[in-house]
Amino acid sequence: MTALSRRTFIGAVGAAGAAALVGTPLASAASRPRAASTVYVGSYTNSAPAGHGLDVAQRAAGSPALTQPHTVGKLTDVSWFDRTSDGRTLYVTNENEGSATGTVSALDISDPANPKLLGATSSKGGSPTHLSVHPSQKYVLAANYDSGSVVVLPIKSGGKLGAATDVQQHQGKEPHAHQVLTDPSGKWVLAVDLGTDSVYVYSFDTGNGKLKLHKQITLPAGAGPRHLAFHPNGQFAYVAQELRPEITVASWDAATGAFKPIAVVPAVPAGSTGDLFPGEIAVSKDGKFVYATVRGPNTIATFTVADGGAALKLASSAACGGNWPRHLVLDADEKWFYVSNQKSGTVTWLPRDPATGLPGKSAGSLAVPNVNSVFFV
To answer: For residue 353, how many other CB atoms are within 10 A of its CB?
Structure first.
């Protein structure tokens, strides 16, 4: 990886982590998950302490706890997940720290508890950190952090991936593509680049697997956009800025592919100091709440949504129960948060109050060294 390693550079930028901010009142834990589920957990194998790559855990009906994890062999530096709409094939990024190029692996998950590796394909760039399956179910899109590029990989019969049909190289002093996803309309592909402080909007030809740059939207220098999430109405998006503790609110017009920043909202209370690095961002299904993890104070920031999605307001900053919350996901019922805390090597789960949207205190944890993300199937 380059000197600006996505796993290590943040510690060199800021001072030692600040104390955790005061949590919100405990949400009711009376509601429990309705059914058993399989959960995939990704971790870094090439960082100390070494993670496992891909763990498969179970969540029993009536309990939020992740249990009985087992490791799927031969998978390195697993850091992101997505699956096909039929639920039969899982795709994961393999960052492969220290290698010139990473890979994307395909796994047969017909039996979710026992994934079977179908093969790995070059991402045509260094440290692929994010991927998504295109709605056409014909391609996987991946973002290469180290090389600052976006790659298109065709899905072949049986779920294996073919050689890249396109690679879009971002230009600038130090491009670092961090995310690539399709907008809710299915018409446009958006890529978020931390190094160029930009969001790229591409049109996509599903016939030949080629991207074409439509617009590059530049955010203020040093913002470090990391990930974005759309409001359920498809008219607004929220960008977590990694290098400033802020969320950019943008309007989105799917008819024209117009992405327009309209507001910037702090992700931490006024007066916060020390390391303040947002990680993941998520939106509740009802569109009433936006959530972001903040590394340093190790919090979940909860925002209330107003004006149909156009306005955010920081409502609380609650302790996440671990150190360095890289990723957050809500379960299908949105009754529990699952937070991947990289430095403490724990996945913590916290109840969510369905009325206020606020997280309660951590109710348990699963130990996974250098954990980075959780994916429910």
So the answer is: 17
The answer to whether 327 touches 320, Cβ cutoff 8 Å, is: no
**Class of residue 60 by CB neighbours under 10 A (exposed 0-12, middle 13-18, buried 19+):** middle
- All domains in the chain, ordered by first residue: 9-376 (2.130.10.10)
Could you tell me the two tokens for 124? 């045509």
Strands of the 103-108 sheet, one edge to the other: 78-83, 89-94, 103-108, 116-122
Instruction: Say yes or no to pLDDT of 62 above 70.
Output: yes
- Category of 53 on φ-ψ map: left (φ > 0), alpha (ψ -120 to 50) or beta: left
Taking a C-beta distance cutoff of 8 angstroms, is the pair 134, 140 a contact?
yes
* Helix/strand/coil for 13: helix
| Cα three-residue angle 140-144-148, rounded to 5 degrees | 130
b/e per residue, 300-324, with b = 16+ CB within 10 A? Answer: bbbbebeeebeebebbbbbbbbbbb
The pLDDT, as a whole number, for residue 8 is 53
Rounded-to-integer distance, Cα 224 and Cα 222, Å = 5
Say which DSSP state 25 is in. Answer: P
Q: How confident is the model at residue 107 (pLDDT cuts 50, 70, 90)?
A: very high
Question: Is the pLDDT assigned to residue 58 strictly greater than 80?
Answer: yes
Sign of torsion over alpha carbons 288, 359, 347, 111: negative
pLDDT tens digits, residue range 185-198? 999 999 999 999 99
Strand order, beta sheet including 177-182:
177-182, 188-193, 198-205, 210-218
d(CA 296, CA 34): 34
Q: Mind giving me the DSSP string for 163-211?
A: S-SEEEE--SSS--EEEEEE-TTSSEEEEEETTTTEEEEEEEETTTTEE
Which tokens belong to 98?
A: 């220290």
Residue 26 is predicted with a pLDDT of 33
Half-sphere exposure of 40 (CA within 13 A, CB side): 25
Nearest to 128 by CA among 376, 377, 372: 372
Q: Which pair of tokens denotes residue 329?
A: 């996901």
pTM, whole model, 2 decimals? 0.92
